[in-house]
Amino acid sequence: MEINVLKPTEQNEAEILIVGLSRHPDNADGWKGLEKRFDGRLADWIKGGLSFDLNSLSIYPTLKGDIPRVLFVGIGDRKKLTEDELRRSFGIAGKQLVKEKIRHAAIYTASFENGEVNGEQVAHLAAEGIQMGAYRFADYKTNSNEVDHRVESLSFLTEQPADAIRQAAFVGTVHAEAVNEARTLVNMPANILTPTAMAEYAQELSEAYGFETDILGRSEIEELGMGALLAVNQGSVEEPRLIVMKYKATDSFEAPLALVGKGITFDTGGYSLKPKDGIVGMKGDMGGAAAVLGAMRVIGELKPDKDVVAVIASTDNMVSGNAFKPDDVITSMSGKTIEILNTDAEGRLVLADAVTYAKQLGASQVVDVATLTGGVIVALGKDKTGALTNDEAFYGKLLDVSKKTGEFVWQLPLTESDKKRLRKSDVADLNNSPGRDGHMIFGGGFVGEFVGDTPWIHLDIAGTSHADAAHDLGPAGGTGAMVRTLASFVEKLGNKE
Ligand code: BES
Ligand code: ZN
Ligand code: ZN
């Protein structure tokens, strides 16, 4: 995406001008200039019903100036407009730009500003929202009726210092592009996005940004004794992969933050087979891995001052004569033994070994992200990510960041009695499925058993990583949940805490 910053009066190639229409127009610098562009017709249009309502869109011809059309975006009461609302408004505008087949758009920055949101934030949110809204998954139809159309440039018309506006728009662009890549990974079917293909993607990402990468295949995973990852992979014809990517902000790389992702490319449930309605869509069970890969892309672009190691455990969970079974007892890399009560509780198994590996690499903080349980959807709905933690202060920082990124995160409790139930087994140290009552907590809590005292946050994105219907910031399908929050969290931790 090309970003330009121009003075409002400068000559400009855009096909459309995006203007925020507020109930307090008198605050907008240059409202008069706008009136001039419309040859005094603005007042007539407003009288004729041009809507100020939040998220309403109206397109008119501009009567003067070099931009032929204007897209009015209703922002309701400018004084009450929040960052999240503005991001969504730009998302809706982005969808409209695609519909109108517009490649070059200009944004009248001042028309979106208020006491809370300054020009730089507008630039960030516009670049982010428009590109998220404009996302389409390139499908596999031989005769696709979706024309390949993209917005190629955004020009910010502003009197403010160009460098700051350009940088803010760049950050927004990086965020949106990473989210969109993560969406594509989630939308890809499992016969195409195999663990091997995911590892190749990670390798390419690493080459682009200079991450040190280790891709472990079956024999290395066996050598490490990752019995939990291997158990899940046992019924598959696809080789498992453990993907490790290091972003070194310092040479010492002594105590990195670990981002650990669940990369189940397809979850049949195994012998605890999912019902036919529950199995469709399970190509998205690598949403946690996609979030980590997306965050690493942002990290590669923005280079925060924080060492990060990404660890992704990837396999599919299949049924076959070799597959693992309920009642099996397996030994994880940590040495802890696990009684399998439900082969569909596989995410926590692969995460257990991934977390153990991250700790062995010296991780001083761990965030795991996973489409782990249907329970989180029952508890919180599909628009909230569920969280667990063993360190409230550490979690508090992520929560602050999530409020800025507009990704709703809600913490659930993890109590000693929950832990007791995870440790209850006649034959092993742990069981992988203590019950369905409050089972989001058991899913994450199981991972916590392998983290120990290291500051840790668990994010269950089973609800948020996939949208059943189109929404303000994108179409139905993969959402790229937690990409922006994870990346911004790393940025915050790098800012000398
Ligand atoms: N991949 C699923 C969780 C999931 C459910 C993701 C719906 C996205 C949408 C996970 O592996 C799973 O099957 N969890 C079980 C756990 C249960 C067996 C304790 C679940 O949630 O039912
Ligand atoms: Zn499962
Ligand atoms: Zn799963």
Automatic annotation (TrEMBL):
**The keyword Signal is annotated on this UniProt entry:** no
What does the record note about the cofactor? Binds 2 manganese ions per subunit.
Localization terms from the record: Cytoplasm
Q: Does the keyword Lipid metabolism apply?
A: no
Sorted alphabetically, the Gene Ontology BP terms of this entry are:
proteolysis
Q: What is the protein's species of origin?
A: Planococcus citreus
**Top-level class of the enzyme under EC nomenclature:** hydrolase
Q: What's the family? A: Belongs to the peptidase M17 family.
Q: What is its main location?
A: cytoplasm
Q: Tell me the protein's name.
A: Probable cytosol aminopeptidase
Which residues does UniProt mark as catalytic? 274, 348
A molecular function (GO) held by this record is:
manganese ion binding
Q: Give the protein's biological function.
A: Presumably involved in the processing and regular turnover of intracellular proteins. Catalyzes the removal of unsubstituted N-terminal amino acids from various peptides.
Give every Cytosol aminopeptidase domain span: 342-349
In short, the EC number is 3.4.11.1, 3.4.11.10
